[in-house]
Structure prediction request, 688 residues.
Amino acid sequence: MVELTVTVTNSLGLHARAAAQLVRTANRFQRSVRLERTDGSARADAKSILSVLMLAASRGTALRAVAEGDDEQEAIAALSNIFEDGFKEVSERQHQVTAEPREMKWTGLGVSEGLVLGRVLKLHNGTRHVYRAHIEDADSERELKRFRAAARLARRQLLAIKARAEEQLGKDHAFIFDAHLLFLEDQKLSNEIENYITREHSNAEWAVKVVGDRLLSVYAEIKDDYLRERGSDIEDVIHRVLVALSGERPQYRNLSEDAVIVAEDLLPSAVAELDLQHARAIATDAGGWTSHTAIIARGLGISAIVGLGDLYQHARTGDEIVVDSFKGEVILHPSSATIEKYRTEAARLAETRATEPTKECGSVRTQDGMEIILRANVEFPAEFDGVRKFGAQGIGLYRSEFLLARPGVMLSEEEQYKAYSEVAKLAGTNGAFVRLFDLGGDKVGDSLIESERNPALGLRAIRFGLTHESVMRTQVRAIMRAAAKGRLDIVLPMIADVGDVLRAQKIISEERSKLESERKERGPVRIGAMIEVPSAVLTAEKIALTVEFFQLGTNDLVQYLLAVDRSNDKVADWFRSLHPAVLQSIARTLEAAREANIPAIVCGEMASTPAYSVLLVGLGATDLSMTPSSIPRVRRVLAGIDSRDASSIAAQCLQCETADEVEDLVREQFNSRWPDLFTPRSLPARRS
Ligand code: PEP
Ligand code: MG
Prediction:
């Protein structure tokens, strides 16, 4: 046995690059080489990068190097050399200088207000879950082989990436991939995963995830900032192996206090996985105003910017970040001056917000006495508080499909019954409109629905229910039973014509009779149709005769009427809520409801936008449902207008030829009639 005390002299300590050099050196020797802190507080196997990094040895740390075996002398001499060399300190410093993060700025679409200073939490585009499967003894070997094959594939990919990076950026900059390779080759890591597979009878994906998460949580506790951030390297490697295995992605539950979620795109299932109590903001590369990321962020009152292009590629977990959704700006690695500026701004905003009145509740009356009902759209229990806090008149749209976001499997009748009873209780005497699962499209349920070439035009919403009747039957039974606890109505999503309504009604009425014969307690429910596709608008008079209410979904109406994918930032400029065709469709639908003497609730995002809510009233709407936090502002604006003015402006808008013309008209008219109600920012922005 040979021992030697060495000191870490390089500026960043035993970080990924230095650790990689150390491990590569130790691995050249046959026998054991270990490192120990001289105070005995930690020891590491010098052949394992994970183990070396866990020493958290910063500059100045004294370590005892111990080698045992035939080549112990050579091993100690080699280690001594690299420590003395300071791990090529000069290039290290150079690297440090060149790698000093620069302030970088992105501009996107601010979809939920807020100004946040925080730290990046990168989230892989997780739409699927890593499931745990029980593996029989006889099949364990197969899982081990799958894991080894995935690790080999990930290794080949990394070697190729490293070679490319070396060629394009130079050796110094490719070091990080060397560290990734060592993580992957680390026996400690692969042994742990393989042991987990055999011991726990687990599938390979689950074992990789559990072991990876465990490792990440240990990293999260390291005091040294730089080393702690190496967690994102482990994250990348784990992700790569999971993708190599099956395309599944890792998930994160416990967010730090100041987490800003950065993702390429964030689907509802991923949001449902998070402990959003702590998420401060969301910044995504893709998405639009009515994408579900935006709707959820607004619902939860979290600041959000979408359509940022390539932020995800540049950000790393732990990076400092500013998210200013008022300006639609994201700043990565903000300088101290920038941080100071935004801190002051955030404090000023917090003060103004604290004084915003939110006490009124119930409907609102316009200056000329027209009563407008204000309800809440709800997706997650986390939004329930807002329904009361912002004085909503019950729940105008309960997006029930979000119940399926978390587990990724269908819920039983009992589980649904409990959830709907809770909603009925929350909604009180004004009741809740429960929409049948709107699965497919850009929504939740990717694990329940087969992937389709064109999901927005595929087996979405009512089409899914009519195809998978048992799912629909279970849901309507649960709703009708929960309706005994409080007022609930059923909304049929994405109705295209009377035929869809009749088929759904038949199923509902059969289940009603069954509940009766089973002597199960149930309450009365009305059945209504979402009007959100052009064919429904064009046959609205006929549909109105078959249902008891309309729900006007302007988000999908704009999407389908203008042929613009609501979640695609590349076509966001074509998503024009004030397009004359949209306004005419709204007017026509409201007119059909009036003629048939049934209520019509406008529940798309237009209703959440104060300026648009005025136009909706002008077009004849008297019942609006919106993100709970928007209620106070919509209330304030509607209380300040005369509905006859709104009607006259809406009538002029209907005569316009283009969305630009409508927007110009709205800006001009609103400014001159209601200068106190609208700031330039609350009106449609001028387009260049
Ligand atoms: C809509 O389409 O306007 C709507 C309210 O439903 P969702 O946004 O859930 O599709
Ligand atoms: Mg819709």
